[in-house]
Amino acid sequence: MTRIVFSMVIGRSKRLLVYLLAIHVTMLATALSLLGSPIWSALTIVFMVCSFIYYCKKNQWLKSNKAIIRIERDIDGKWHLFYQATTHSKPLTLSHCVVTQQCIILYFNRSRFYKETITIMSDSVDAERLRQLRVYCRDPKTFQQ
Q1: How many angstroms separate the CA atoms of 143 and 21, rounded?
Q2: Which regions in the chain score pLDDT beneath 70?
């Protein structure tokens, strides 16, 4: 049994939903203004709607078994992702991250060709846990091999 040194429950983020909606509407308006063909416009609308639904499912705004609801780090530095369907991933390695005041984006290597990305917004998690994760990600020793 591995010893867990960090665990964080991830909830829904209203900020992320507003961001996703704004980005998708902006991209849709931009693409439709550049396209002249009704066929390409229809394909663009379908693509943007599918993209929005995918990200809403991934970030718990729509029911999905693939939504990540909790992350954990064990003593060996391996990360475990827990999904809505009460399943979890095999141990993952944190390859790099982006840390800001409002969000943290974690990039994991799942395999040689497949990466897993998690966006954690400040309004979707406990403030103290977010601070601990921010400190961990900013530590220079975190990504040394």
Answers
A1: 33
A2: 1, 144-145
